[in-house]
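Quick one:
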Amino acid sequence: MKKRILLVDGNALIFRAFYSSYGRANLTTRSGIPTNAVYSFINMLLNIVQKNEYYDIKVAFDKGKKTFRHDKLESYKAGRKQTPPELVQQFPIVREFLSEAHIDWYELDGYEADDIIGSISNMVKETDDYVVDILTSDQDMYQLITKNIFVIAPQTGTSDLITYDRDKLFEKWGITPEQVIDYKGLRGDSSDNIKGVSGIGEKTAKDLLQEFKNLEDLYNNIDKITGPKKQKLIDGKEDAFLSKEIATIYTNIKLEDFSFRETKINFNNLKDFFIKYEMVSLVRKYSSEVEDVEPKQTINFKKVSTWNSSYSDKHNYIYLEVLNDNYHNPDVIGMGIVNAKGNFYYAFENQQEVSIFNWQEKNIDENLQKFLLENEFYSYDIKKTMYVLKTLGYQIKHKNFVYDMMIACYVINSNVKSNFESHLNLIDSSLEIETFDEVFGKGVKKTKDIDENVKIKYILKKALLIEKTKEEIINSLKETNQYELYQKVELPFCYVLLDMEYAGVLIDRKELENQTQNILKLLTNLEKEANEILKRESIEPINYASPKQLKELLFVDLGLKNYNKGSTDKETLDALLGAHAIIEKVIEIRKYSKLYSTYLKGFEKFINNKNKVHTIFNQTLTNTGRLSSTDPNLQNISIRDEEQRKVRKIFIAQENYIFLSFDYSQIELRVLADVAKEETLIQAYKNNEDIHELAARNIFGLDANEIVSSDQRRVAKVFNFGILYGLTKFGLSKDLKISQAEADQYIKAYNKTFPMVQEYKDKIIKECEENGFVETMANRRRYIYELQNSNFMVREFGKRAAINAPIQGTAADILKVAMINIFEMLESKQLDAKLVAQIHDEVILHVKNDNIDKVKVEVQQIMNQAYDDLLKIANKNRTSDVKLEVNSGVGATWYDLK
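Output:
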């Protein structure tokens, strides 16, 4: 039986792996080492190896830039882009992977990977003992194809493969493997800067080689060729033969100590390698290949349906698992409890899961209730844990839930995906656990009816890992100077959010129904108007919700300018405004369709039998520190567009209650003025000047007597807020519809007015390039690896993020401190009022009518003081140079608040 050999063009494969995952800056180790190309390279190689029975695997690399081909052609491969530095770093890691896997790899001075592979292929081409697959995307390798040597070429990224034999090559180029070097001699190869014959393209080269055997035969019969083609060939003869020589793979290298041997990949070594480079998904993927050198850890446990006081201990590590993402309506699976008395699995088998609004009817375990009220608990996502326990009927004390692994890991690195296995990998990549989907399934296959032992051990393992990692996590927070942020801001903030989620907001169903009907009518009319526009041009109506149909309408039927490769996104439609009457209608249809599907019809499924919605506030999803919300999303209801703003009318206060809202005025600009020490801005805020008018006067060179027009103020406003998001002359010219030269002048005038702002931005980017992260005033870190990327667009994104993150993150931290202090004030003074929502820089309270004045005074004072409180928490030993300004509103609905 023939032995099958895999020869891998290491350089070609790692380049393809890198560019197939290009821009994925999050594929780095905690220390910032990029691993995207290594990860894709490994996946590609091991996937192929697992699908085929290879006896031996050899990998070849280019060793240096200069080879014998450069001696023949100095410009060989000249003009190629420099290898990105983040890819250069990964070549030695790929070699390390191969060594750990016990896969032979080769590199030789003066030769390319092609020559090494060619020489190995040459050893076997005349024998029937071996079949060889050459894995490469380099088309030069086609010349090596024989009856027992094949080229397997990646097509899309690094997944699909095409196998080239003699027939497949003829189908592609119309030539034989022996003619590949003649083909390259005629048409050249731009990727290697091989010239070929000027004016001879792919089709002509193919036709010539189907008539003549090779270049020698062609030039021996040059008189048989007529017309301009003949002269091109005569003029290019020297180039043709030189190009052929350069394209010829050298096949006579003597490789020292070379032999074919059975490759047995060492998955035990690879496990250590995967852990070292934090590729936990590969550990899980290939764990079945690893020999069990040590027996797997046995988790001893006791399953209980009722608690016993003998199981109780002062310190407890718990993990409560639910099946559905929306834990407000939980399908409880069970709870793992780990303490000095043992490992316990609490099954909740004797309790009904009923609505949160019927707590008094619960059939609860009194011993478990006592346990929860008298001891301390360390968990993962304690907001979810406490909410579910409350839903099941248990009273809880916030102060008893003293540690949250999820929040702590979020503080350590907010770029990491917020789930248990990702956070575990962040702390210790040698620790492993299956994903929720691997245990319980996903989508329609998700179920808790699985093997009970598997289920129990999975949940208990999480509780045990919370215990195992706690000390290291706390130490990491202290080492990065983020412990106070965790302990005094994020942890107490989760109790505030928990209370807000409990409270919910009352919905006016009649108002919701009226708005839903009105938007439906509006959409119907808009679609009629749009169809009339199309009818005038004899075009059939389309489904405006279909990107495919819209793309065909805009770029085929109407022939409008295709700005973005057929995209019909908002940016593209905005750019097309004015080009055709249909564009405005499409934009309107999109806007109101989203309003209908997300905030009107979309809200209905979240309203419970008490006419309330209880959103989930996501504390650990954004990498800026800001909140998001889901089920339903309350964050994106616009207050600028009147139709969207009307949606706020559906949120109503209960009888004898009213809403109070408080929002910070220009909080991010005020933070910028403070952190940048921009004296002009600081003084303007102290004097209560109009910041936008001040900026406009300087941008447009107006003196004190000249009136600032509304357009000039609008431009200044774009500047003042855009400066936080890395405003560029390109972006400004696009936003304001002015030339880039004009935009550049505006930017220079702005920077002259506020010189410390530009100095601050330059300083932040420099620090981020050196450290890999930026910090808020509360020491919250945001890691920005994009600044190390060789891709200009990715780097520019990194710069914008670096400038914005400290400002936006500090603003978010200020709001959190304010809300914590408001929450604690309401509890301590026992006022009949509750925080019910936070939307961007606005907080909304639901207040008993007779408490309004007192709450208003207290909240105003707390919010004014919040920045200084944050600076104190972060041990900055100073107060802010800019005082915060708080606007307030009062109303029976959210609509009335603004």
